[in-house]
Amino acid sequence: MSIRVHKPYVIAxxxxxxxKFVWLGIDxxxxxxxILTNQYLIVDNGKGxxxxxxxxxxxxxxxxxxxxxxxPENVVAVFYSHQDPDVVGSLNLVAEFFPGATxxxxxxWTRFLPHLGVLEGIKxxxxxxxxxxxxxGHSKLVAIPAHFLHSPGNFTLYDPxxxxxxxxxxxxxxxxxxxxxxxxxNFEEHAKFMEPFHKRYLASSKALHxxxxxxxxxxxEVIAPQHGAIFAGKRLVEKFLxxxxxxxxxxxxxxxxxxx
Length: 260
Ligand SMILES: [Fe+2]
Ligand SMILES: [Fe+2]
What we know:
Layout: E1 5-6, E2 9-13, E3 19-23, E4 26-27, E5 40-44, E6 47-51, H1 59-67, E7 75-79, H2 85-88, H3 91-97, E8 102-106, E9 123-127, E10 132-136, E11 139-145, E12 155-159, E13 164-168, H4 187-200, H5 205-215, E14 222-225, E15 231-232, H6 234-245, H7 255-259
Parallel strand pairs: 6-7, 7-8, 8-9, 13-14
Antiparallel strand pairs: 1-4, 2-3, 3-5, 5-6, 10-11, 11-12, 12-13, 14-15
This protein binds fe (ii) ion (FE2) (2 copies).
Residues 82, 84, 150, 169 line the site of one fe (ii) ion (FE2).
């Protein structure tokens, strides 16, 4: 029987070990309940920032994985790329189990969050449309606007210390039943699992090229999406960015074909 539960993995780490970018593991069986999601944790000098903790049913796994790297009271921040259920669905549990965490989310979505339930005591910082610098331990992270890719209030998160870019739904892949891997090896094969998502969920080429323009100024070693597999190393990062550049019409550009 193949192993379907995968343990957390440190994607990138500073030389002195004080800063880590961690993928928080996965249970492939979750694909039977909903789309598979990647969660990540950035740790700097004992303080943690949790990225897109995900829906209700993954929270127990995510919580256990986080506590392997940082004490729950030292999770000081939670970054939400956007408002989808697979991103914010566990917000109530996040608030209960990480009581010291400040939530960062687009200013577009804060008024919608109370619909998830009682949010007493949660500190929320609205990320303005132009983005935000977020401080964690002795490090600085950058929330980079990625609006309309797909959410109208959407951010990616760059970690300059280890040169990792969390790309949210950009780079998402939906694997066929029974298939899963953590790192992209065969790009051409992997692109088949990304293309339908990018053509239908991402809103416009104009938005995509605006994001690419910002990203191209950064030194990136790893791109880590919320779904699918990670692009590790400059060669794969560049292949992925080139693929996005040449993706052609997406979202509203295809509106007539989509609506028939
Ligand atoms: Fe989404
Ligand atoms: Fe998503």
